[in-house]
Amino acid sequence: MHAVTALMLFTLAQPPALAPPIATRFVQVYPHSEKAEVFARSLGQIRAVVLIHGYKIHGLKSTTVAQPIFHGWQEPKSTLVIELGKNSDVFAFAYGQNGTLDAVSQHPALTAAVRKLQSIGYKEIVLLGHSAGGVIARQFVEDQPDVGISRVIQVCPPNCGTSLAGLTLAVAKEQEAFVKSLSKDTRIKNQAARLAKPIPAHVEFVCVVGMLTKTGDGLVSCHSQWCEDLQRQGIPAVKVPADHWTIVRSSKSVEKIAELAKTTHQRLKPAEVETLKKLILP
């Protein structure tokens, strides 16, 4: 056999390269103990809130992209954790960013952690995701409608992507797949592919729209945060005057987010959606 032909056949016969594994951590941050990965439900507490972070800035030559690193607003002494802890036990999920957003939302570690929370007696489990974390929370409940999530709070989510995700020149090669999965093209294609997976009717869902200006939070537009497919499903939105970065850190916006985590959210009727669009969308 010709050497070139043999090489081509050998190449075609090789299985596709496996995606690198994504490391994760899931810890309890309120009440906090030194053994954060050992969960303990507070006496009489029925609600657990799970904090899911978004994009983590790494240097161009960073060696930490694959490490699950918590953001400051997820830490035990953060303003958000302290405020949420007044009415809930609080947990935090971190993940390496060496894979796509879809791979993170389908990670078995998140499913296992939610089931563990159920097993120790929580009756309400709330996913609170900021930025890309909000999209992860959304896809998690769409893919697993019966896993036991009660409520999802999306904070400044790029549901329809962000144009800044196309700027990968300053991103470490290991993180490129994650950043590209937040681009407008990728998110729109993703939505089209997931039309058969609406947000489950029994899961309360609310979108927190950050507004630094009338068009968005400085990173994600209002139209991307509360996009058309959410509007068609009657998902309520709440406008919060804050930018993308400080919305989960400043006292005023944190109080609003914590309030949303414990209150009931009903789906909107079409007429109510139209009224809300006039208040939120430019």
List keywords for this structure.
282 residues; alpha/beta; 33% helix; globular
What share of the residues lie within helices? 25-40%
* DSSP strand tally: 7
Strand order of the largest sheet: 1-3-2-4-5-6-7
Largest sheet: 7 strands, mixed
Unreliable segments of 5+ consecutive residues: 4-12
Query: Which H/E pattern describes the elements?
Result: HEEHEHHEHEHHEHHEHH
* End-to-end separation: 66 Å
Give the secondary structure arrangement, pairings included:
Elements: H1 3-13, E1 24-30, E2 47-52, H2 79-84, E3 89-95, H3 101-105, H4 108-119, E4 124-130, H5 132-143, E5 151-155, H6 176-180, H7 184-193, E6 204-210, H8 222-225, H9 228-232, E7 237-240, H10 251-262, H11 270-280
Parallel strand pairs: 2-3, 2-4, 4-5, 5-6, 6-7
Antiparallel strand pairs: 1-3
